[in-house]
Amino acid sequence: MSALNVLIIDDEPAIRQVLAAAIGKAGHSVEQAANGMLALERLAKGDVDVALCDINMPVLNGIDTVKQAKSSGIDTSFIMMTAFATIDTAIEAMRAGAVDFMIKPLRNEEVLHRIGQVGDLRGLRDENKMLRKLVLGDKDQQSFQFVSPAMQGVDRLINKVAPTDSTILITGESGTGKGVQARRIHQLSLRAAGPFVPVNCGAIPENLLESEFFGHTKGAFTGADKARKGLFLQADKGTLFLDEIGELPLALQAKLLHVIEDKEVRPLGTEQARKVDVRIVAATNRNLNDMVAEGRFREDLFFRISVFHVYIPPLRERREDIPGLIKHFVQRHTDRLGGDRNMKVDPEVEEMFMAYDWPGNVREFENMIDRAMILADDGHITMADLPPAITKSAPASADVSVVAGTGTLREQLRKIEAGIIARSIEEAGGDRRIAAQKLGIGLSSLYRKLEEYEQAGLTS
Hints:
The chain is about 50% helix and about 15% strand. The chain is built from 21 helices and 14 strands. It starts with a strand and ends in a 5-residue tail after the last helix.
């Protein structure tokens, strides 16, 4: 391992001096800072590889130091230190952007080991970045850039947690793109060179689940005519994506928990355990909190898989992404179908897409673009290329004709949405909670939209 630039951030001089002596003796370059503000001034130079940062400090505590450093684009890897450790503190530190967590009193050997691990990870990360650039050129890992605040927040969270080994739970309705985000997490991780193994937990027969997950030896059961490597071993050194994890039976949930905690599996037919190094990303369209309360999902497993929670909102709650998605999918399917690269979409079609509620979310939306492009004549998608499910329902619910020609597309769409919401509240007898349920949006989203419409003068 090459020498690293290390910064020790602690308000206790004795701790700084002891650590500096040990780290310097190991061949690293060491500097010290007595508080978070002084540390940020030093970190701003951009050449510190690793920072050992105490959490409880005057002036600026360790958590806020990490947050400010990360928000400023500082690439230093933070190892947090504290004498008052709790699980909540550790999680807060990792969410802030730290990569490791140590409990005082510290042993010099352990400190050097952790610094070495972080150095190795930084080397692997830089190597992966270089390899991806060689393979992909300067293409961004995600070719489509979201404009909705909700999805921009998802992007920011994924960019922070992907390089770690933390488990991630992705939730959202069917078709919102949970699998796409899971694969993106793998591509942005230090495991990108390893396998990405997706599995739909609801598609495997219950009597085969254990064999599928953990593998089996030859003759382990009737029909096992040869040994099989399970999903965990297939995903070794990579990422295992457990889609629809809410479908797993309780018995397998317990075994899955043990594998995650012990990092080893026992194939059916043998008592010999095999070590595995797998990062878990799980997804579900179910409410796991409700399932835990009902006793249908283990609480301890829920906490294990949801160190970070990524919620993907339905397409109807982020309609501002639709124009960009139209261009994105038209380009994608043009490349695949080899059609007209200048495919046009009529304004009426885009307006219809914006007004429709998309119960199948992004998956339905992409399929609709694919269908329309196949049917389109002369490189032009018109209303005639859309199925009745959209052309009949969207105008009726949106009452497009009332606002046609009264402003820009965005202004017209806001009026359409304001009218739909007002009508829903009226039909619900003024009960906004019922109206929100009927519209398929959260109550907070409804209130936010009403406030926006009031400020824009769209409510009476």
